[in-house]
Amino acid sequence: MPPPASLPLTRRPSDGRRRGRLLILLIVLVAAAAAAALVYFSFPSAARPAGSSMVRSEADCCRGTQGLELWGPAVKWGSDHRLPSAAACCASCKAMCPHPEDGSCRCDSWVFCGDERRCKDRFGECWLKKQKDVMAPAVVARGEDIMWTSGLVFGKGQGIVGLETNLGTLHIQLLPGCAPRSVDYFIELLGLRNCAGCRFYRAEGRGNLWDANGNHEKNGAFGPPYALLQGTLEVDGVPFKEIAREACPSVKRASVAWVGSGPEFLISLADHGEWKDAYTVFGYVLPEDMAIAEAMTLLPTSTDVWSNVTVKVLRDPVFFKVKRSANASAL
Fold first, then answer.
1. Torsion of CA 327, 111, 83, 97, to 10 degrees
2. Between 206 and which of 14, 143, 227, 260 could a Cys-Cys bridge form, CB atoms 3.0 to 4.6 Å apart?
3. pLDDT at 5
4. How far is Cα of residue 157 from the mean position of the Cα atoms in its chain?
5. pLDDT score recorded for residue 43
């Protein structure tokens, strides 16, 4: 069964070096998608366990990374601060942010011990910490054998990365509570100081299907065009490790999300309720930069057909650099 036509696809524009490899990969992906779709529609209860629910709002996200112990000065000692879950520990850190006077966070990282067997007398400890640099947090231990779960909390103006293009810089507010592994990848990218090969290669406007605020026109189709930018965050020469599914707020205008497990990603130019929870949303473009995203859809494109879906591909990809940024207007 082919993927729904309203969903963006993972295929990139082919070139001479990749044509044969992509064709084989495409055949495999289509076969896998068909098998997955058959299982999904045959066993809907297996696709989403009873009683589970996906996070719909970034405000509801409070997740961390298992097997990670962050270091740093403690603002609240875990030996005197025990909580029932990692989410509660995260919420406790969030409660100290922002400070009423300057909007800063007294706590910007948390460490929780939730494995009763391994934690023993430290079970439930919730350490609240303050990093010297929250975008380069101190890590004391990482791995499957680590009993701690850790996460970050960004205050006003923190956790913003810039995708610097020749049209301007798209500032993206990252969401560590929703997508901690994705945020970790961006921290890694910043450490590399290089994003060679990172680019946008697909650009489709809103057409007449969505208004300027991203609202879908009543009784309208959902594409084409599909109101999105699509690109890759894979660095040339650096193998990309697929990112497991994370919390999924609904895709709204300005949402930034992985396509599949990455490195392909999209920026949505409209509210896409029809996509349900298909994508891991790891950030959003700051409102003042959406004009740059819209301008990209006006660049020359050509049409291509990916798995029987007509898409618009940029004739000249828009390359970008990933840079650390601070922006006081961050929400």
1. -20
2. 227
3. 43
4. 18
5. 25
Residue-range domain boundaries for the chain: 61-152, 160-325
- pLDDT score of 17: 38
Fill in the DSSP letter of residue 6: T
* Regions of the chain short of the pLDDT cut 70: 1-60, 99-103, 326-331
CATH fold group of domain 160-325: Cyclophilin (2.40.100)
User: Using one digit for the tens of pLDDT, what is the confidence trace for 114-159?
Assistant: 999 999 999 999 999 999 999 999 999 999 999 999 999 998 889 9
**Helices of type H across the chain:** 19-42, 44-47, 86-94, 116-119, 180-192, 290-296
- pLDDT value, residue 146: 96
Cβ count within 10 A of residue 103: 12
Q: Which residues pair with 310 in a beta bridge?
A: 305
* CA separation for the pair 295, 39 (Å, rounded): 40
Phi, psi of 156 (to 5 degrees): -60, 125
- Does domain 61-152 fall under CATH 3.90.180.10? My reply is no
Both tokens assigned to 240: 């990309």
Instruction: Output the six-digit token pair for 7.
Output: 């969903």
Give 32: exposed, middle or buried? Use CB within 10 Å, 0-12, 13-18, 19+: exposed
